[in-house]
Amino acid sequence: MMKVIIVGCGRMGRGLSLNLVKKGHRVTVIDNNPEAFEALGNNFSGKKIVGMGFDRDVLNEAGIEKTDAIVACVEGDEINAVIARIAKNIYHVPRVIARLYDPRKASIYHRLGIQTISTTAWGIERATEILTYNQFDSVYDMGNGNVNLVRIEAPSLLVGRNANYLNTIGEIAVISIRRNNKTFMPTGGTIFEVDDILYISVVSSAADKLKSMLGLF
Asked: What is the pLDDT of residues 36-94, one digit of tens each?
């Protein structure tokens, strides 16, 4: 179970909050308009705080010092950037995501260590995915569990290496990479980058080998 702060209770913030609560996570929603919370419904079990998402008193009330992640999804790239930078640089929140209206700014956010999501409905699922997967998340079993499709954010050990570092004939194969909100199939020479999310096929007998290559133990 994670503790997540959602700043902004518009369409995306509301959808993400309800999605995370449904999955059993503890969610706190911040919005400066108390009427925005009505759309969450009477059964919403999370915490609701009225205030500005960049106000330190509000963030402290939301428990930001002990939160696992924060998503800034108010209407405005600049405000989302401010909230994300406060969370990242002052409170050192492990996972920080900002909604982005202007995709041309994505590279700036990434240089600041902030992940971004689009304004579409798909962005809700993308944010949920970023927040909830663990270090070695099995997303699909094939052949009665003999082969697994696992998902992992590229650890620092992999950054700068190419896909062939992991690819092992008959055991391990990098199937796809999600980067900057786009998914593509890599070649053996594709270089892993910071914030890449990897989808890797691995036979069950090679799972420990893969974890060792990823530096997980």
From this structure: 999 999 889 999 999 999 999 999 999 999 999 999 999 888 899 899 999 989 999 88
Number of Cβ atoms within 10 Å of the Cβ of 198: 22
pLDDT digits (tens, 9 = 90+) for 91-110: 998 888 888 777 677 767 76
Same domain membership, residue 104 and residue 89: yes
Residues 71 and 145 in one domain: no
- Total domain count for the chain? 2
Contacts of 131 (CB under 8 A, 6+ apart): 2, 4, 20, 25, 68, 69, 71, 95, 97
pTM for the model: 0.63
Length of the chain: 217
CA distances from 67 to 19, 59, 76, 95, 101 (A): 18, 10, 23, 9, 25
Structure-block tokens of residue 82: 């401010």
* Domain final residue pick, 132, 164, 181: 132
30 and 119: one domain?
Answer: yes
The domain in which residue 16 lies consists of 3-132
